[in-house]
Design a protein that fits this description.
Elements lengths: L9 H12 L3 H14 L4 E7 L5 E6 L6 H6 L27 H6 L3 E7 L6 E7 L2 E8 L4 E7 L6 H5 L4 H18 L4 E6 L2 E6 L4 H9 L7 E7 L4 E7 L11 E5 L2 E3 L2 H10 L12 E6 L5 E2 L10 E2 L2 H18 L40 H11 L34 H13 L7 H8 L11 E4 L3 E6 L2 E6 H19 L4 E11 L2 H9 L1 H6 L3 E6 L2 E8 L7 H14 L5 H16 L9 H11 L15 E5 H7 L2
Parallel strand pairs: 1-7, 11-13
Antiparallel strand pairs: 1-2, 2-6, 3-4, 3-6, 4-5, 7-8, 9-10, 10-13, 11-12, 14-15, 16-17, 17-18, 18-22, 19-21, 20-21
Helix pairs in contact: 2-6, 6-7, 8-9, 13-17, 13-18, 16-17
Length: 635
Amino acid sequence: MTDVIKLLPDHVANQIAAGEVVQRPASVVKELLENAIDAKATQITLVIKDAGKTLIQVIDDGIGMTSTDARLCLERHATSKISKADDLFALNTKGFRGEALASIAAIAHMEVQTRTENQEVGTLIQIEGSEVKKQESIVTSKGTIIRVKNLFYNIPARRNFLKSDSVERRHIIDEFQRVALAHPNVAFTFLSNDTTLFSLPKSKLRQRIVNIFGNKMKERLVPVAEETDIVRVSGFVQKPEFARKNRNEQFFFVNDRYIKSGYLHHAVVAAFEGLLKPDTQPGYFLFLDVDPRSIDINIHPTKTEIKFDDEHAIYTLLRATIKHSLGQFSITPALDFSLDSELETPYEYENKKPVPPTIQVDSDFNPFKEEARRMKQFRAGNFRAKPTESWEALYTGIEKEKTTTSFESPTFSDKEVIEHKRTIEGLQGTDFEAEHVIGTLFEDVNAKPSSNTFQLHRKYIVTSIKSGVVIIHQHLAHQRVLYEGLLRNISVKEAVSQQLLFPLQLSFSAQDIALLANLREQLETTGFVIEKLEGETMEVSGIPVHINESSVQEIMEQLLDDMKQDVPGESFSQFDVLAKSLAKTMAIKVGTALTEEEQEHLINQLFACKEPTLSPANRKLLITLGIDYLDNKFM
């Protein structure tokens, strides 16, 4: 029997290892940025082309590498941060060159250009698929420049699984933001296809958050700070009124490393208990500093999940710290029934000198003076009151009310109505004008018949059909109506707008404004009139006729979230995502009361659609209960 187990060649082993480290271009960006941070860089520039598929370049001004280090960093199992197994449990760095670079070099064309401060010349290494093609000395600035070109060029199957450029760019932006937030003392620049997306100077954490997410964050942030023997908590949470339906602005960092933790997220939500609207999530930027020996960061290949030695204590401390911060900055409501507002001293009285009150005494005041006069008259026998000049004057202004009896709207008991009805029915065929009597006493006889629809729990619309009953989900049904209408408007470009008396000034981050600029033409075909899109400001002077002015901000935020999560590549798909997002936000919400006319109008619009049974997200929006089905329930 021949041997079946054999050692893999190095280039194949490197490709397999790369599958764990490099999942998409964003994985490369993360590794290269973290290496630059560990190289003590103060200025880092990230350049990508075609969402990283063609080029990923990271330039830093760190300590650089010698020619030997530059060559070794491309070998497997080469690292600068551990020398023995125990070092894995006391990591203070993210990784300096090594291992990740070997995996990246196995699936791309890589070029490393580096020089240390005390060297006169630097080193250039070119490698393709783990094979070194060139190594030479060059003149270069201090620091390191790494270029990764043609990612997955030798693994076409992996390259075909990559998403569109917009989706991959979104993932790269996410990784860039996480690294930039964790290191506000480092200046970052991010260029995509020769367009500057971010230019972040060195700053404090608060300013770094504002620089990334826009000036709107200035008024939203509440500082959080607490230090104990177990953990030191710092950062910011957003005020409850700015909670959103998505989780895009939620960041946890442990020892300056971004992590995901549902357990700690639950602690934050618990701290906001009673302050959030239904189905909304708080935003936060929280940093936890713990002893590296008390955590295990190697339980996940991407190191985004970690394990704490004492999770329960950290949970309790985090929740208590956030609660304290919300209370300290008067975010949480407070009730004090023993506090009298009249006894509170204004702040401006702090430096005011007290002035003694003045006392004025009326020396002629005698409370018994009038009583003494009356007693004097009584004793003299002159105690009768002055007679009234005319007793009739007591009744002036009071007119006699006419007592009239009107029988125009008589009220009858149920028994009386039945007796009257029987009497009238007995007079049919005689000379008595029964129609007049019926019209007078029973005005509901000729009233409009009851509607064919009614609303159930302000969520469903129930209507009868020839074969049974139809139950319609009003929110999903309105989504379908709006979706097809928006697609039609985008196609024929005939949307109707209502002009606003005062244009709306909406604030977004710079990258959100760039995304809205790409959607400007499509938004205008749906009825929005956009006057300005620059910096961090969007000015809207007209909106579609069927939406409210107050909901424009919410509609735009939901649109941005949907486009970021599912950014399409083709123009038709982009129209489709835009129409779905706008329809979802503008549709009537569950809990909205509808009149009979509105219910019938919605049903008529729904059955005029091309696909009246499914929502834009392919959810069933109506069910039919046949007469046979109902009859069987009463068998």
